[in-house]
Design brief:
The chain is mostly beta strands. It is built from 6 helices and 47 strands. The protein has a domain at 32-236: Immunoglobulin-like (Sandwich). The protein is globular. The termini are far apart.
């Protein structure tokens, strides 16, 4: 069967031109009235009571308006905001009246976690650039949350400031009081300060959200819509130094194999280091870490990955997450909605490359290899210059790592990771009020003394890119955004050959006429780019984009990319009604068309999707997404072999979400797909959130996955007699897989500063390959089965390998294939007790456990497999860590 390649008559480029030439002009929104702050005339004690004389002299601000549930209506409960300052801090006092103070929601949680509680949130834009700012939130239970604002609309909750707050509840409502040190805010040195300010209050039981400055739900902007904060005079940013030294001890109890000379089952480690932050007084801060420790970070979940690409894991290490927003959203600025369809967007900076597991391997009877690369030191510079540039730069040095090897009585060392320097710089600058320009540069330099590592890894890797956006109307409703980047890597011929053979590009494809394998090449270069058009506001929305990633683009030394040799585009038209009617509180719908091609001009994807969702009057949410794609070509199914057909697919994803204000709420999700030629997938997921009492939250996301895949790649076997497939046999299996995962998270907040978090994940996944087959001819989806349609197949005496003769009595040589059936069972447990014993200082006690079992491959039985898992040997790690904040 041949693929039906559909070429649209109305191209995406035509859609972009048409949309750009029919945009409404619009007028800029009317600015809100200013808010005044007064200098404090007496000391302020942060106790949650506004009883100091200075508060009585402050100018109250009221008149909050609802965003939910009744947009534009006055808030049902009155709120008054007062602002004071002195030479060292900004003080915030808010009186939040409540007609039913006994029903104020006061759910406790760990700092920065979103809780089911009444909250008061202050938004500040100290630079008044209408793009950036900070978010400071206090719940009625006294829990703090802070975040950084970026790109006008988005919050980065990895930003952590050291500030004080207190709350009190009385017969008339509740009160919140904050002290925000000026050292935690970045602002310019000017004669008269005009900051941006906004505030939000949430009355949880009413699902009511009210704002000091209301931005309608179908409009865009947060930092750009703030009121002017005036009256802050005679304050200076100043220079300041913060230190966070730490000490830690760790014990590992990991059962070694018999005779292991490197591990007797119990090992102890100790460590010390320091993080520092130096405010330069110009809106910039220098942040550094010497021998950083991340032992308190939650473990990654276990996954079963049957693809050719590595698994992506989120960054969780505090040094890299804090302030990371400055490095994000390359090519996305200005747009409130970023929609793509099957665009394998490269991430130009992926901080988990720094300190990754060593990339080399060692062989021997026993090998003791490090699980991560030591970060000798790291520093980053983040902030905003006086010239209006938002800047981030990061430099890190990781050490050379060696594995200890034992062969008999002999001992040796083998280098598995070279000394490496990582660097990334990112900057953005506003161009008037209608756009921005930015750039990013990354660099990886390796000191490769080992010939083995020189053949494995490129010596130098660079990526550079330019991005920006332009608003096409005064209201910033329509925006054109995008970015273009290029890469260059160089090293030995062997290291570059590995990149040419890698799954991202497969230059060895025998039927490709536009890429060619060059075993003598010592460098590789390529490019990536995207251009998008988005409507940020209105009931009718539009989103479209075109993109391309050339075959030679390679950002993976300090970035993350799974695909190259692809280009594509999409167009989406949507409708939303965000105000209540008789049945619903809001409704949304959209329909989209998308395509992808390779750089040989062959269509690799062609489909449509549609979505319909509504929130009912009782706060239940219903969502459904339908998709249809037609069969096209697939140049990567054979993993370096010839092109095949990519079967068409029909898909459905449906969600039902109950009222999230309740103590127990649930999301039920069904995901179904069926491909041409018989492959199917079913996944059933339940998201459960239970709050038995105010200090405890229990959440779980169990799922059941059942997959039937007609052709799952297994191996490539060279065979000169396989002339129809270019001298190799591409071996596949029909896979029947059942997988159950039960992630469970428990959060017990004993106070706003003392919490216990427990994360567990049990994963049971079994796959059976009842049929082993091979690709018959290129550009088909024809896979004859060994022993039935072609050749013979049987097991060797051990039962661990198939013996396959692909043509029976013909001239082809037999070959063996390891039986691919599997049964992976994994249990991961991570418990963290955190005590913030003073602002910015914390002590941690951490326990991590891992269990793995692989018995009964190919046979799934939930009860038996779970029992095998919990009875399997356990690896345990215990850690204590204390970090002490020094600053003011």
């Amino acid at each position: 069967m041949t693929a039906r390649v559909r070429i649209p008559a109305f191209t995406l480029a035509s859609a972009l031109v048409l949309a750009a030439t029919t945009l409404p002009a619009g007028a800029a929104p009317t600015p809100p009235p200013p808010v005044s702050a007064r200098r404090a005339t007496s000391p302020i004690e942060i106790d949650g009571r506004l009883d100091e004389p200075a508060w009585a002299a402050a100018t109250p601000v009221a008149g909050f308006l609802q965003k939910n549930p009744d947009e534009g209506a006055p808030a049902t409960e009155a709120t008054e905001l007062r602002l004071l300052f002195d030479d060292h801090a900004l003080y915030v006092g808010a009186r939040l009246s409540d007609s039913e103070p006994g029903h104020i929601a006061r759910q406790l949680s760990r700092r920065d976690d979103l809780a089911e509680a009444d909250t008061f949130t202050l938004y500040l834009d100290p630079h008044r650039d209408r793009r950036t700012g900070v978010v400071l939130q206090v719940s009625a239970a006294g829990v703090q949350r802070d975040a950084a604002l970026y790109d006008d609309n988005f919050e980065d909750d990895t930003w952590d400031a050291v500030w004080e707050s207190a709350v009190s509840v009385d017969a008339g409502g509740w009160t919140v009081e904050m002290r925000i040190p000026l050292s935690q805010l970045r602002f310019p040195e000017v004669a008269g300060h005009a900051w941006g300010v906004n505030a939000r209050r949430v009355v949880y039981r009413k699902n009511e959200e009210s704002w000091l400055v209301l931005v309608p739900k179908n409009e865009n902007g947060l930092a750009s819509r703030m009121a002017d904060l005036v009256g802050v005079e005679g304050v200076h940013p100043g220079r300041h130094l913060e230190l966070l030294p730490y000490a830690s001890v760790r014990e590992e109890r990991i059962a070694p194999p018999p005779g292991d000379p490197f591990n007797d089952g119990s090992r102890q480690f100790g460590g010390a280091g320091v993080d520092f932050k130096y405010g330069l007084g110009t809106g910039m801060a220098l942040v550094g870490a010497i021998n950083p420790d991340f032992g308190q970070v939650e473990v990654d979940p276990a996954v079963v990955n049957l693809t050719a690409f590595e698994t992506f894991y989120d960054e969780k290490r505090p040094f890299f997450t804090e302030g990371s927003a400055v490095f994000l959203r390359f090519g996305r600025s200005g747009a409130s909605d970023y929609t793509t369809f099957f665009y394998p967007e490269p991430q130009l900076f992926y901080s988990r490359r720094i300190g990754r597991a060593p990339q080399g391997t060692a062989a021997g009877d026993f090998v003791d290899a490090p699980t991560s690369t030591t970060i000798l030191g790291a520093a980053k510079l983040v902030g905003r210059t006086s010239g209006g540039w938002t800047v981030g730069a990061l430099e890190a040095l990781t050490g050379s790592e060696t594995a200890q090897v034992a062969v008999g009585d002999a001992r040796s060392q083998f280098e598995v990771e070279p000394l490496t320097n990582y660097f990334v710089a990112r900057a953005q600058h506003a161009v008037g009020s209608r756009g921005s320009l930015g750039f990013i540069v990354t660099s990886v330099l390796r000191d490769q003394g080992s010939p083995y590592l020189a053949a494995l890894l490129p010596r130098r890797a660079f990526v550079g890119g330019l991005d920006g956006h332009v608003f096409l109307d005064a209201r910033h409703d329509w925006v054109l955004s995008g970015g273009f980047s290029g890469s260059s890597v160089s090293g030995t011929a062997d290291s570059v050959l590995r990149l040419q053979l890698a799954p991202q590009r497969y230059y060895q494809r025998p039927d490709s006429s536009y890429v060619h394998l060059d075993p003598n090449a010592t460098s590789l270069s390529g490019w990536s780019g995207r251009l998008g058009l988005n409507r940020n506001a209105g009931n009718f929305t539009f989103n479209a984009g075109v993109w391309g990633i050339s075959p030679g683009f390679e950002p993976n030394d300090l970035g993350y990319a799974t695909q190259t040799d692809r280009g594509g585009g999409h167009g989406l038209v949507g409708w939303r009604k965000l105000t209540p009617d008789g049945l619903t509180r809001q409704r949304r719908a959209w329909v989209a068309k998308w395509w992808t091609w390779n750089f040989g001009g062959e269509c690799q994807g062609d489909g449509v999707q549609a979505y319909l969702g509504a929130q009912l009057r009782n706060y239940w949410q219903l969502d459904a997404t339908l998709g249809r794609s037609w069969n096209t070509w697939d140049d990567k199914l054979t993993r370096g072999g010839p092109t095949t057909i990519r079967p068409g697919i029909d898909s459905l994803v449906a969600d039902v979400t109950s009222d999230t204000r309740r103590r127990l709420w649930v999301i039920g999700t069904v995901s179904l797909s069926q491909r041409e030629f018989g492959s199917t997938s079913q996944q059933y997921t339940a998201t459960l959130d239970l709050r038995p009492f105010s200090a405890l939250t229990i959440s779980a996301v169990p799922y059941l996955l059942k997959v039937h895949t007609v052709a799952q790649y297994l191996a490539t076997v060279s065979d000169a007699t396989a002339t129809s497939t270019y001298g190799a046999r591409y071996v596949f299996g029909t896979l029947d897989q059942t997988e159950v995962s039960v992630p469970l998270r428990l959060s017990l907040a004993l106070s706003p500063r003392l919490s216990l978090q427990l994360y567990t994940q049990a994963l049971l996944s079994a796959g059976r390959y009842p049929l082993i087959r091979e690709l018959a001819t290129p550009r088909t989806y024809d896979f004859p089965v060994y022993g039935k349609d072609a050749g013979t197949i049987g097991l060797d005496p051990t039962g661990a390998n198939y013996l396959i003769d692909p043509d029976g009595n013909g001239p082809a040589a037999p070959f063996s294939l390891a039986v691919p059936d599997f049964n992976l069972k994994s249990l991961r447990v991570n418990a963290v007790l955190r005590w913030e014993f003073r602002p910015g200082s914390a002590a941690y006690a951490v326990w991590t456990q891992r269990r793995v079992d692989g018995e009964n491959p190919g046979d799934f039985a939930f009860g038996r497999d779970f029992a095998d898992l919990v009875s399997s040997p356990a690896d345990n790690v215990f850690m204590l860590k204390v970090a002490w904040w020094l600053g003011r």
